[in-house]
Amino acid sequence: MKSITVVGASLAGLSTVRALREQGYDGSITVVGEERHQPYDRPPLSKGFLKGELDADALALGSPDEYTDLAAQWLLGERALRLDAAARSVTLAGGRELRSDAVVIATGASPRTIPGTDGLTGVHTLRTLDDAVALRADLLDGVPRVVVIGAGFIGAEVASTAHALGLDVTVVEAAEVPLERALGRDMGLVCSSLHSDHGVRLLCGTGVSALIGHAGQPGERRVTGMRLADGRLLPADVVVVGVGVRPATDWLAGSGVAVEDGVVCDAGCGTSIPGVVAVGDVARCPNPFTGRHARIEHWTSATEQPRTAARTLLAGRPTAAPAQPPYFWSDQYQARIQLAGHVAVGAEPQLVEGDFDSRSFVAVYQRAGHAVAVLAMNQPKLFNRLRRSLTPIPEAVVSHA
Amino acid sequence: MITVCRIEDLPPGEALRVTEGVPVPVALFNADGTVYAVDDTCTHQDASLADGWLEGCFVECPLHASSFDLRTGRPTCPPAKQALRTHQVTVADGYVVLNVTVGEPA
After folding, report:
1. A241-268 residues labelled b (16+ CB within 10 A) or e (exposed)
2. Exposure winner among A281, A343, A401, B43, fewest CB in 10 A?
3. How far is A61 from chain B (nearest CA, A)?
4. Per the confidence metrics, is the pTM higher than 0.90?
5. Which residues constitute the domain of residue B87?
């Protein structure tokens, strides 16, 4: 193997470059990144960066010395348009064609949005550094009333940051219970109560039926509020839509790479095409903790999968690493939430330390007698101990549970 | 010089966070009988390393799994890039004594 193209220059792309070099690959590496920025850390975009505690330089994932050592060619501000998987050729929007011996798909995901946001200023999604710069500018423009649509982790973090900036914040969630899919009903209620603890309104069980705008500057329509599905009108000067993401796979249409809610991978991050692997938010790999193919949109996966993918590419066959339980964290309202494992339907949380009311606790989810997940709020030490005790449920148990 | 605790209060495998009498929080670790002291806050993002996972003379950050060599303070894997400051620590007459080597955080 003499040349590798990595499409995607965020954490998963950079981690793949690092892993290839660590594993002794000394051929050429070309990294294509749609954003013009060098790889940066996204989690602070909804927290410290949005709040103004960190600047863009502090988000840099690599250092100049490291980039020298990695000796990769970075094509930033370049979008991949097409993959010819059989020829392992990537066509860029500018027309350039990159041919290589292997291709790494690390294109991540794009925020989902809601109808009626096109051409309406003051409505934001949050994924990229540029998104965060634009949102921050709007949050600091006067004292805007902020409405966050979606009470998932990104929405909750943005709400928490806007609240910390002294703004009036309302969170609208279509589901009856926020975070129910990730944490189950009871723990979803506990974690989402952080909003009301801090005086942030949380409206659940109602979707948004229409955004409302009015003419602002010439040629501009600016959001002024929204109508909820239950008929209520909610005024807003800034709206943040945090309703999940869709994997960035449009450019793979017709490539021959199997795509179904992400790039379908084996346990070694290999795709349906030899010499093409996928990592990070875009990759849907089998995971013994989730018991099925799953896209795991966590920071940690974007650092772990690349080691596996690099081994697969360099060995020329699927090389799975021992599975780690999925892990993520969320910082909101000075609380640190950590979850490891997978909260399957029917997994019941049991409190093992602290108590819910004090917002300091550890709960372990049990299913069929197995500890399948651990959730902590403000208890990192015990969390990390218990996280290491999680084991995948054997297949036979899952199918009979 | 700060007398932190008796050595029995910091048994092997355990960690302690010192916040009194120090310019920045310091984490003490008993790694298989040897006591180390480093800055407590991970150089990557805000997390207390005293809450981390101790393995040999390496501590893993409880948030993002950066690992640091307690002997040198150096990170052994991303995301952390900067080294932790290390501090002198001795065990004298059964007490753990910390000598913070810097006045102010860098």
Report:
1. bbbebebbbebbeebebebeebbbbbbb
2. A401
3. 7
4. yes
5. 2-99
